[in-house]
Design brief:
By secondary structure, the protein is mainly alpha-helical. InterPro entries: Engrailed_Homeobox_TFs, HD, Homeodomain-like_sf.
Length: about 170
């Protein structure tokens, strides 16, 4: 079946009338604007697209303060609350949604970095001459792996603690 379609496609491409129609379309695109052109192999090529792109809307200081206040009350907005907040602050819903997502991400990264820094402080060791030195960075990866496996082990033990293992008296 695929061979038949390839034959049909080849026939259509050879067809002079079809080529004229394609040329007409390409010429009309050139008349529409220079930012939408076709390369010689027929692939569309976009140029100067950045002119048509919208700029990034950043909340001003007052809007940020209001968003932060709302974030402190709840980290996740309902659809209705997002609409209200966007309307109150004269921002788009997408901007409000993105601000909340970015804020949650920033908070998670800060929390993670604090944990890593705490582990680094705990992992200060002393050289042979008694001078403290930090554990090299590549050890951080091993520490985080140990923490993950230890957390999994503890969670597994906590889940098993509710079960009592008994022996069969038979």
């Amino acid at each position: 079946m695929a061979d038949n379609w390839e034959d049909v496609a080849e026939y259509l491409l050879r067809n002079r009338r079809l080529r004229e129609m394609v040329d007409d379309v390409l010429n009309s695109l050139d008349e529409i604007g220079p930012d939408c052109r076709f390369t010689t192999d027929g692939n569309r090529k976009h140029e100067k697209r950045s002119k048509n792109k919208r700029g990034i809307t950043k909340p001003d200081l007052i809007q940020k303060q209001r968003l932060l206040k709302e974030y402190q009350m709840t980290k996740y907005l309902t659809q209705e609350r997002k609409k209200e907040l966007a309307r109150e602050l004269n921002l788009s819903q997408v901007t409000v949604k993105n601000w909340f997502q970015n804020r949650r991400r920033r908070e998670a990264l800060l929390k993670r970095n604090k944990t890593v820094n705490k582990i680094r402080r705990m992992s200060i060791r002393k050289n042979d001459d008694g001078v403290p030195c930090l554990v090299p960075r590549n050890v951080d990866i091993k520490i985080s792996e140990v923490l993950k496996s230890e957390t999994r082990r503890l969670n597994y033990q906590n889940n098993l603690s509710g079960f009592v293992v008994t022996q069969d008296e038979n």
